[in-house]
Design goal:
The complex is a heterodimer of chains A (about 250) and B (about 70). Chain A has 9 helices and 8 strands. With about 250 residues, chain A is an alpha/beta fold. Chain A has a 7-stranded mixed sheet, with helices on both faces. In chain A, α7 links the parallel β6 and β7. The relative contact order of chain A is 0.15. Chain B is globular. Chain B has a two-stranded antiparallel sheet. Chain B has about 70 residues and is an alpha+beta fold. Classes of the chains: A alpha/beta (about 250), B alpha+beta (about 70). The interface between A and B is medium-sized, with 30 and 29 residues.
């Protein structure tokens, strides 16, 4: 009998506090599995954000540090510079990375910091109760845009992957989704490659993961993934925007 | 076709149904007869014989509740 799938040892035994069907859990698994498969779990240091994944430090079976809201890339920069032989990653949501922490992520990429960032984009502020985020789609209803996001008032949602791909210091930029098992496999490949980018000392690496928020979107978990597929992927196209090896 | 065995850590299941929707042979459903310590009806397998050990349910599960073995 061979094991096809079991819980990764890159995760602790602490049960996730996330809502039922929240894909943060899936993304946590992918990060943990990637670290284990690359053989660097013992050398990994993660930086947790503020947002729904604020308690990520309880879940990853490696050293973790909590950062102030949006400052995870700055904290990760410090850790990586003091411990250049460690594998340092930040795990951030869209409220953290694309709003209050935009300056930190842009400059970390611009300096070409040798860190890996996992950016979870669910188009809403989850932890605080479903307010409009910079990534909220035009027309999407949230508690602070009850009639839907108005482009004239709030502009269009920010495409972080495309923006960071224009920066020379960013050596690996990819957008993935976790709406189907096939896409989850692709997401894991991207996350692994983002860690390889750091292991090879190439520069900054980021993977934007499209994620669902069933609770604040007001949908069941399966319907939330359908919504993601029908609405988010057309605006946030999946794919690789930059790789450290030419032609990849 | 490979045969598989799926086991659920039912106490950790939050009944989100994502495994139910991705199972290609449709052998997973929520066990409405049961409520776990978290207050959810956990997912369970209704026909183990039909499992093809693809692992889709386990890959999809956000809470790492599912273990899949190939017989």
């Amino acid at each position: 009998m061979t094991i096809v799938y079991e819980k990764s040892r890159g995760l602790t035994d602490v049960p996730f506090h996330y809502c039922p069907g929240c894909t943060h859990g899936v993304i946590h698994k992918l990060v943990a599995e990637s670290l284990v498969e690359l053989g660097v779990l013992g050398d990994a240091i993660g930086v947790a954000p503020v947002g729904c994944s604020v308690l990520a430090y309880n879940y990853f079976n490696c050293d973790m540090q909590e950062a102030a809201h949006g400052r995870a890339p700055a904290v990760a920069t410090g850790i990586k510079r003091v411990h250049p032989d460690k594998v340092v990653f930040s795990y951030q949501g869209d409220g953290d990375l694309a709003s209050i922490g935009t300056a930190e992520i842009v400059h970390a990429a611009h300096r070409g910091e040798k860190i890996t960032t996992i950016f979870v984009n669910n188009a809403i502020y989850g932890m605080t109760g479903g307010q409009m985020a910079p990534t909220t789609l035009v027309g999407q209803k949230t508690t602070t845009s009850p009639f839907g996001r108005d482009e004239a008032l709030s502009g269009k949602p920010i495409r972080i992957a495309e923006m960071l791909a224009t920066i020379d210091g960013a050596k690996f930029v990819e957008r993935v989704s976790v709406d189907t098992p096939a896409n989850i496999r692709k997401a894991k490949k991207a996350i692994k490659r983002a860690f390889e980018c750091q292991l090879k000392g190439e520069g900054f690496a980021i993977v934007e993961v499209l994620s669902s928020c069933p609770t604040n979107w007001g949908l069941t978990p399966p319907k939330a993934l359908d919504w993601l597929r029908d609405n988010m992927i057309p605006y946030y196209p999946l794919g690789n925007f930059r790789d450290f090896e030419e032609g990849k | 076709m490979a045969k598989g065995k799926v086991t659920f850590n039912e106490d950790a299941c939050k009944g989100c149904e994502l495994c139910v929707t991705v199972c290609p042979v449709k052998i997973i459903e929520l066990n409405k007869e049961k409520i776990n310590g978290k207050g959810y009806s956990p997912a369970h397998v209704i026909d183990q014989e039909k499992c093809i050990a693809c692992g889709s349910c386990a890959i999809m599960c956000p809470d790492s509740v599912i273990k899949v073995e190939r017989l």
